[in-house]
Amino acid sequence: MSASTRESKLVFQTLNVRREAAVLFVEISAPPMNLEGPELVGDLVSLIQQSEVDDTVQVLVFKSADPDYFISHVDVTRIKENRDAAARLNGDPSIGQLYRHLSASRLVSIAQIEGRVRGVGSEFILACDMRFAARESAIFGQFEPSFGVIPGAGGAQHLTRLMGRGRALEVMLSAQDYDADLAAAYGWINRALPAAELNDFVRSLALRIAGFPAMGHAVVKERVNAIALPTVEDIRRDSDLFLEGARTDEFQELTQAAMKGGFQTRNGEMDLARLVGEINEHRTE
Amino acid sequence: MSASTRESKLVFQTLNVRREAAVLFVEISAPPMNLEGPELVGDLVSLIQQSEVDDTVQVLVFKSADPDYFISHVDVTRIKENRDAAARLNGDPSIGQLYRHLSASRLVSIAQIEGRVRGVGSEFILACDMRFAARESAIFGQFEPSFGVIPGAGGAQHLTRLMGRGRALEVMLSAQDYDADLAAAYGWINRALPAAELNDFVRSLALRIAGFPAMGHAVVKERVNAIALPTVEDIRRDSDLFLEGARTDEFQELTQAAMKGGFQTRNGEMDLARLVGEINEHRTE
Amino acid sequence: MSASTRESKLVFQTLNVRREAAVLFVEISAPPMNLEGPELVGDLVSLIQQSEVDDTVQVLVFKSADPDYFISHVDVTRIKENRDAAARLNGDPSIGQLYRHLSASRLVSIAQIEGRVRGVGSEFILACDMRFAARESAIFGQFEPSFGVIPGAGGAQHLTRLMGRGRALEVMLSAQDYDADLAAAYGWINRALPAAELNDFVRSLALRIAGFPAMGHAVVKERVNAIALPTVEDIRRDSDLFLEGARTDEFQELTQAAMKGGFQTRNGEMDLARLVGEINEHRTE
Description:
The structure is a homotrimer.
Chain A: H1 3-9, E1 15-20, E2 23-28, H2 38-52, E3 59-64, E4 69-71, H3 79-90, H4 95-104, E5 108-113, E6 116-118, H5 120-127, E7 130-134, E8 139-141, H6 155-174, E9 178-179, H7 180-186, E10 191-193, H8 195-211, H9 214-228, H10 232-246, H11 249-261, H12 272-284
Parallel strand pairs in A: 2-3, 3-5, 4-6, 5-7, 6-8, 7-10
Antiparallel strand pairs in A: 1-2, 8-9
Helix pairs in contact in A: 2-3, 4-5, 4-10, 11-12
């Protein structure tokens, strides 16, 4: 298969893909705010499938076309569709298993983060092999517990292993926003960098890694994953618990209150930490 | 049971409890230096028992009435009494199991630390779900190995999981004092904050968490604990090893030498790291 | 056995040993660049064997006689001889098992790092119980994946446990050099200190620990290792995978290209991160 044939297949609804050497630079573009719906899930499935069988691809770099939102979070109105889209990869209707597949892949994945990345977006970058963020603009949140549920796609698994029990509990139970410096101090990301340097840093790193022998990538990932990657069962259990919680009246009521307050809108989520606090204040009064 | 009835039961020898919304603010007050003796252990047992059955309580915040000592450490003259007091919770005569019960509880626990917190005090904050400390005044020590014994209530378990093998070995084998910034860098605590901001920060965080759905607290704690909480067996083994060590002549001799040097006195423990160094210098001459 | 008899046995080809109280200060001196060959491996075996049976020794401090190189890495031309030398300890022909033996020993080991420490050198300091480095001069690298292989002596095991999945993958897959501040932020080392303070800091710490009861060292190490020390099987598997990779044509070709570029020379390895990038650029053109 020629390179041009391969290129021509990499056309997506929500991803702009540019190739350089053995690196695919993948820009997430799902206006108006990079919510994760079935189009983005489906595109991620296709991208991973096509890249894995193409041995001229070694590294995937993920960034966002939207300076304010990397991936905002799951589209809560389309959870069922998302699961159907994810199931196309290996039959398991779970975003968490899709993400875990990426973590376990021979492909090296790097997240280059500007703007907000919360909920299932945070879980996506946690599934990537490395995470670098713009000090001035990146904002992190794993806010699902403010709706009474556990993160459904591996967030609790990764956060606990990366930052330990105390900080993982704080991050999730507080449902707060975290800036890049604090995220780096906690181990949520590898490093916070000045926004002006981020793109060059990640590009150089990706090209460097892509130039090294593929057999090294595979064996290192296999051995690191054997220690630190959550098991399929752990991911499945969290997913089940999330779905269980999402069926409760309490979750449904909070979601409706949040929608009225601006949830799933660009403006409404600029300060999501405040929004989830307010809907819960209302609830307990 | 009415709120006022509940309030009236929360009267303790060594704890001052104030309630706000679904948060209990618990001030440890066991003059002259917040040594952990059977009164404090017994009060912690009662507090936990009463709070767990009261579903209007979601969060416990622990702070100290003494600006110099949060919990100094166990009263070494009353280890047997402490164990009897701890056994009231579930029959296991072990401070470590009492602490682990708190970690595993649906209640969210937050330590707000000013002053010295060493030995079994450090193990208490490690069992809490989150730890925030005053940059100017908090001092941390897990100094048991300077008496030839392992921390008896889970300290080695938590420190190793939070900060990794190298730093956990350093902290325990050196028996040094650590300030809040270094404790944060090592992962011993979540964050060091300016003393002037600490109380407001923790109060806001506690009230925020308490306002979120209880079902979220429970499921997040369950899944995080499944990864990062030491097992009952691990806690028991450390407790047994501590008791074994505490029965040796070497431990007894060091304890007596320490008592002569000011151990278990306010003044003598202001610089405990120096004190434990001196009694061992004497020993090896 | 008298102290003088013991002293007289501590004569090595590549180590200068000085004793103070219960501490052995061990200076690595294998000119021209502290490559790890069979002489150094054999000396480490002898040092560990002799120290373990001498109950007047409690702590080993490792430093380097060469300000630019602590341990540069394995001498790739002598891997078979190194394995034979390591096998003298307990029959297992593996540097990783030699290192693991040190980690599991009752002896407390401290690495005092100035200059470059890469590859099997990084794995050595990771096997030590604690690691302190000079902020101005220490440089860390775990660059084996740039030759297509996994670190063969436990590096992947320790790095993953110390710094988590994302940073461990970055460190190994990037094959970059890391300075002491970044190494400390990532948890590779305990702390970075000003070079002018490093020696006094480590000497004081070593003497302090050596003055505490030996039974405390042993029980703390046993319990921490039960949580955080890689198993014998994990070390063996990495070693096997390294040897498998090192037999490939790709590894051999890269090694030969590196040799032409200055690999295993003092000058050539001052900027090894650049060198391994260049040989791979050449390869993929």
